UniProtKB/TrEMBL annotation:
Membrane topology: Multi-pass membrane protein
Gene Ontology cellular-component annotations: membrane
Keyword Electron transport recorded: no
Keyword Transmembrane helix: yes
Protein name: Major facilitator superfamily (MFS) profile domain-containing protein
Residue stretches making up the Major facilitator superfamily (MFS) profile domain: 9-452
Subcellular location: Membrane
Keywords carried by this UniProt record: Membrane, Transmembrane, Transmembrane helix
């Protein structure tokens, strides 16, 4: 069972997770864009006074940003506003690699506390803005800090808890719970400005928790030569957990951190970035595509749909966490592969239901099938995060985690545009998710290793084994494409000699080679 120290770490990580979600504009801008100007919602929204700073509407649980801009005669077709969520994705794309690298050089805790402090100020200011340009700029900045927290807070949390608790960190402090909390904030605030202000308060609270209650990673300190500080933190953790949380420190010391260029030049690191990067790319592509294209799945109700999409995966993760607590049978590799199978089958079945129009006749069946596949994505993410943390050395963990997140955000930017594809053919995103799951499964099946209960301080051997496995598979594929010709009698040319009886007109005569024959 969890001790007080680990429980505190998971609670703080969950508070940070509420900030990480940052779906405020996805919730508040999506609904209005799907409606016609003659819809009752927009008609009533236009009758709301333009002088009211916090606006509310009677026939819905929230007043959307899209409705406000239409009411204020603001141009909603400009590039930066049509792509405001994609701009936030670009920010996450930049922040992931930048702050992952910074955390390996200046510390995990500093990055977490400063990112949350800066974000709380930006969210507060953003809630008072009325310029779409400035809001888009704020979304980009928030995206960079979200990328930082996604990568760095997870690394810091796992380096301050025992190996057996890592899976529980993903089960009980998770993204769906944060998403559900954000949906509740939007439901009760009923206004996008108030929601931003509440998020700013949560983010400030998270920053204070990291400042006063979270120490620096002892593994990071050990790798940077600060052995005394590292051992003091390990002793404090051991004391606060009543001896139940033992952190093993690495034996070697790296005084000079590696640059990204140096990391990329080392084959063992490069292969791991390619392997985990490809897995993260496909996971984030599927997750983001479904988040944007399947926003409303139940009774044309956005808030209820968002609660279902967050609540069901959260409950499933908690149940799986309880299974791990009592039975300890959750394998990283098997979790990844089984979740991919479930996801692929569910997405294919959901696409078929839409293709034949059955989702209208059997809406409950469609929602259940889709939710099973959607919830499985969270388990795929669990394996992605756990495998990176448990198979990458401390001195480059932040940088490589950031690189994986960086690459995955590229696919997220593309996936956010899948709503256009859905307008052309409704089941397209679901069948694309099915195809992606097949490719993802093949990569994970052939290359992914088991890493459960790995010692974060001593994982160099595991990394070398992964790198060698990737290199061997690459060489095997290359050899399969090159069929080497074996020498045979048909390919060996005849050997000839020149008869010297006629110097002016030499004659070439073939000779047969056999055992004991020599060519003069």
């Amino acid at each position: 069972m969890l001790n007080w120290h680990e429980l505190r770490m998971l609670m703080i990580f969950q508070v940070a997770m509420i900030f990480m979600v940052q779906n405020v504009f996805q919730i508040y801008s999506t609904f209005g864009q799907q409606l016609k100007s003659t819809d009752d919602y927009l008609q009533q929204a236009e009758r709301v006074s333009k002088n009211d700073f916090y606006r509310f509407i009677n026939n819905s649980n929230f007043y959307s940003t899209h409705a406000q801009w239409i009411t204020d005669d603001t141009n909603v077709s400009v590039l930066w506003w049509e792509n405001v969520i994609a701009i936030q994705q670009v920010g996450i794309f930049v922040g992931s690699i930048l702050f992952g690298y910074i955390s390996d050089h200046f510390g995990r805790q500093k990055v977490c506390q400063y990112s949350l402090l800066i974000s709380s100020v930006i969210l507060l200011v953003e809630g008072f803005l009325s310029s779409t340009i400035l809001i888009a700029l704020c979304r980009f900045i928030i995206g960079t800090q979200t990328g930082a927290i996604i990568v760095v807070s997870w690394s810091l949390t796992t380096e301050l808890i025992s190996p057996r608790t890592r899976f529980l960190a993903r089960a009980f402090a998770n993204w769906p719970t944060g998403k559900f909390a954000l949906a509740l904030i939007c439901f009760f605030s009923q206004n996008w400005r108030i929601s931003l202000h509440v998020c700013a308060a949560f983010t400030l609270f998270g920053a204070l928790l990291y400042i006063f209650f979270v120490p620096e990673s002892p593994t990071y300190l050990q790798c940077h030569g600060k052995r005394t500080e590292a051992h003091n933190i390990v002793a404090d953790v051991f004391k606060n957990s009543n001896g139940k949380c033992v952190i093993a420190l690495p034996g070697g010391i790296r005084s000079k951190p590696l640059t990204f260029r140096q990391i990329w030049k080392k084959e063992k690191y490069r292969n791991v970035i390619i392997l985990f990067g490809s897995i993260w790319v496909m996971t984030n592509f599927t997750a983001t595509m479904l988040d944007f294209s399947e926003v409303i799945i139940f009774h044309n109700n956005l808030i209820l749909s968002q609660m279902l999409l967050a609540g069901v995966p959260a409950i499933c993760k908690i149940l799986l966490g309880l299974v791990e607590i009592y039975f300890g049978i959750i394998s990283r590799r098997n979790l990844h592969l089984i979740s991919l199978c479930i996801n692929g089958i569910s997405m294919c079945a959901s696409g078929v239901l839409i293709l034949f129009g059955l989702q209208k006749n059997y809406p409950t069946i469609y929602v259940l099938v889709f939710l099973i596949g959607y919830a499985s994505i969270e388990f795929i993410w669990d394996a992605c995060y756990l495998c990176v943390v448990e198979q990458v050395p401390t001195e480059v963990r932040g940088t490589i985690s950031g690189a994986c997140s960086f690459l995955s955000r590229l696919s997220g930017i593309l996936a956010s545009k899948m709503t256009i594809v859905k307008q052309r053919w409704e089941p397209a995103p679901l069948f694309i998710a099915f195809a992606t799951a097949i490719i993802h499964f093949l990569i994970a099946f052939f290359f992914l290793n088991e890493s459960k209960d790995a010692n974060l301080g001593e994982i160099g051997f595991t990394l070398r084994r992964i790198s060698q496995k990737v290199s061997q598979k690459i060489h095997q594929i290359r050899n399969m494409t090159k069929k080497e010709k074996q020498p045979s009698e048909s390919t060996v040319p005849a050997v000839s000699k020149i008869r010297k009886n006629d110097i002016s007109g030499p004659v070439l005569a073939e000779i047969q080679l056999g055992e004991g024959n020599n060519v003069p």
